[in-house]
């Protein structure tokens, strides 16, 4: 019969081992996620990582990538396998967080995933400074849904107004489209491209908020200042643009539609080359018209998935100013705590030294005063403190060379030492109680 | 006085004349038939109005008209018009490329200016007389917009500016609601104060009270107006849009005319001389065809 101590230690080792295995599993998955050149493996690993929760109690991993980060890592891997370019990923050295930025963009913008916390899972691809949600991605259901409104608000309503060029905007649009197409092609995803669709025969579905009032008249008036003009077509209007591209805006009769007219857009270029978004990016008069009509109608997107259109915008400046690198480093807080601990040790050592010195001096005085008396006994007493001084000074001298440079280190050392004192005192109060509890619990175990 | 014979009324024989006339009619109808069958539209034009043809194409002064003969085919005008429109519209597609036609009834051709959104109905084409019958309202608008364009203005510029100004004023009426509320509060306070000490200084306070009440009712009026502002602005915006659209159409019309004719005057001249230009062109083609044959 194994004794209780053995049991106790074995259980302890078992718990740690369990945690270590869980960590090891996730590390293996993470490694495959970033190393495998097999798309299926990358997808599978990403899926598994989305299920994982490294909330280990016994062996803790203080720095982990979040599910949202794994989405971005997976997206980067797929785009890498597909040869999509034009973006880069920021890698702060002090934390495990990844952010996507466009390499050639003259406005601050950063993209990352935001995990969807409800039972539907998946994640939103978000521009952080505006909070615009550009698409939704579910690995589990193999589904990508673009958000026409978010994409238009960001690229057409925001970026283009800040003098982002058509080309720069198109790089973003191309990245999104290519990613969707890759997932559709390789994994048979169901992708709702809506405003990114380039097929000529695609008729853009619209959400109709109100019955149009003079909508085409407005576009006609706007077109007057351009080289293009609006023509009548059955049930609507069309405009011939550059590069043999024709845009049509028309309705079909539909008793179920608002005003019994179901409106559509169509972009026809003969090569399946341009999407509605391309048209909005390239032709300001159509973009201005569209933005002014979105209260009437807009390119449709999944209104349930994007019931909430935006995420809380965040200040992205710190993302850009953070130190970047491929080697992880401990952050300032951890380093400060480490320095504080070292400073405390140094202080303690100095105190010990001072006390030892005082003791020595006192001993010397006493020795001088009682020179005649008991010489052999006095000698043995004065030797002991000297030995203590020697031992104590070994560590502090090493520490000093590292930490005696900054004032902040001193400040934090003070606060930490204060904390340490209070901690000691509280644990001192409950020490006996704790022992009592420990004994009781072990008694319970043996009884049970 | 006997046997005085009555003088017999002698009716001269006009058989020849009648025959000649009937023959002329028959010949006329035959000529028209032949011309139609041979698609000789020049000849048709000559036959249906020889005076016009001789004067304008042959340059004969005071030519005789053939109205009586032509009246033989009067009731066929819709059919003739339809027939003649075929070649005429082909010709017009080059001569006036910005006009489009819709045959609303047999031989009745409506003219539309341009192929742009909500193009204007611009009148009718009369293939028998080879002329445009422009809708005066539209035509005068175009003439006026040409005149204004020389001054860098559009047809509805003034009206649009006026409406825009009105909208701004209306908007201010709404924006000043807060001010009016404060003002109303002040006036009402003053009125209340007057009521308190009303008994002592009756006369002057009545005057003052009236004055305050006048000011208050002025505020009431402005408040009432402010309530209707959104509707008014919306209405004005709709009018502005309609005007802008019409201006746009007029700009397109001028642009189309200038591209083809260089100036509005030249367009007017070309429209006026359409019969001569077209029928001469038919004659030239016919001669060219004969020369080829």
TrEMBL record, chain A:
Residues 346-376 have a biased composition (Basic and acidic residues). It comes from the Bacteria. Residues 439-448 have a biased composition (Polar residues). This is Uncharacterized protein. Residues 409-427 have a biased composition (Low complexity). Residues 346-448 are annotated as: Disordered. Residues 378-393 have a biased composition (Acidic residues).
TrEMBL record, chain B:
Keywords: Coiled coil. Residues 156-229 form a coiled coil. The keyword Coiled coil applies. It comes from Weissella viridescens. This is Exonuclease SbcC.
